[in-house]
Amino acid sequence: MGVAGALLILVGGSIAFASQALDPGAGAPRAPQASIPRPPAPTLLNRATSLTRAAAIDLTLIAPSGLRRDQEYTVRLYVNDELVRERRLPDQAEVHLAGVPLGEGENAVRAALVGAGGEGELSAEVTVLRDSSAPIIRVTSPEAGVTVYGATTTLRGRTEPGADISIVDQLTGQALEAVIDADGRFSAELSLAVGSNPLLLRSQDEAGNQARTRIAVARERSEARLRLDVSASELLVTDLPILLEMVATVRDELGRPADGVEVTFGLSPPNAATRTFRTTTLDGLAAWPDLQIVDDGYAAGTWLVTVRAVLSSGAELREDHSFSVQ
Fold first, then answer.
1. CA 189 to chain centre
2. What is the pLDDT of residues 168-225, one digit of tens each?
3. Is there a contact between 62 and 42 (Cβ–Cβ < 8 Å)?
4. Using the 8-state DSSP alphabet, how is residue 208 labeled?
5. Which stretch of 58-62, 171-175, 300-304 has the lowest confidence by average pLDDT?
6. Which domains does the chain show, CATH number per domain?
7. Separation of alpha carbons 265 and 228, rounded Å
8. Pairing of the two strands 316-325 and 234-235
9. pLDDT, tens digit, for every residue of 7-27?
10. Which of 146, 214, 228, 271 is most buried (most C-beta within 10 Å)?
11. Can you tell me the distance from the alpha carbon of 265 to that of 286, in angstroms, rounded to the nearest whole number?
12. 18 contacts: CB under 8 Å, gap ≥ 6
């Protein structure tokens, strides 16, 4: 009948025993079921570039060792903590993950395996920066609409830091030599024909994005002039001391009297150091007043007079003259 258990029953003042069958498992502790461990983290590899303009990238997943053969696993792929892909893990050590989607900017990509024990730990992240914006090309000099009067000028501008720059003279088809800094500032020396000088500028950033722009630098024939007048061409030592008159006449690119132009005079005696005097023009004229030539024992010989004027456009004008002391 099985294992009996005693039961005391009070009958008519005496004690009787009754038997009852018991469940052998009742009240006995059960052995705990073994918990299924979560799968270990896989490894993600980026065999391409960490900077791209593409909307997706291919990655490689390395499966961890020690995965159970009696289980199936699923790969979950996260980009910036958002689940973007889920697929069965094939029975191989390396798995090609094609077309992992990327957002603009920085993308932190991580992967995890899911097994019978749930989702495992996330892999170390792979960071991919997506930049799909073309670089901007800005020309700062010469400014748009400004006419250049000289045969040469310097083109200056800026593009994206780390990008390159190429400049083509479309009149000649020649590529110009350009210098570019790490911060994107660039410059190139231009030789200009009279009239319009079209240029094609191209820039490509480190992600491969490209930009191009066309500009035209206008050059007109300059009417700028500098004339130097000196009151004497020949002096005698016996005439010394004497006050010499030195006047510069400056006209701008349009042939007008140039006001406020800085003028530098220079006087170089035959046997002494050069003297200089700086002033600015008024109504196109500048003079060196009170210029006295004295007999110091070394006055005889040829004296050189120079004048230099810098116009507001940056154009530089020079003229010289000489006189002799006998």
1. 21
2. 999 999 999 999 999 999 999 999 999 999 999 999 999 999 999 999 999 999 999 9
3. yes
4. -
5. 300-304
6. 43-130 (2.60.40.10), 138-219 (2.60.40.10), 225-325 (2.60.40.1930)
7. 10
8. parallel
9. 333 334 333 333 333 344 444
10. 228
11. 9
12. 6, 7, 9
Say which residue the tokens 């009948």 belong to.
Answer: 1
Q: Which two tokens mark 126?
A: 């792979």
Amino acid found at 262: E
Tokens 């073994």, residue? 34
Residue type, 310: V
Q: DSSP letter at 71?
A: -
Tokens standing for 4? 């009996």
Is there a contact between 98 and 87 (Cβ–Cβ < 8 Å)? Answer: no
Measure the CA–CA gap between 166 and 109, rounded to whole angstroms: 35
Which residues sit opposite 191 in a β-bridge? 152
Beta bridge partners of 286: 248
CA 101 vs CA 82, 98, 105, 107, 130: distances in Å: 11, 9, 12, 9, 10
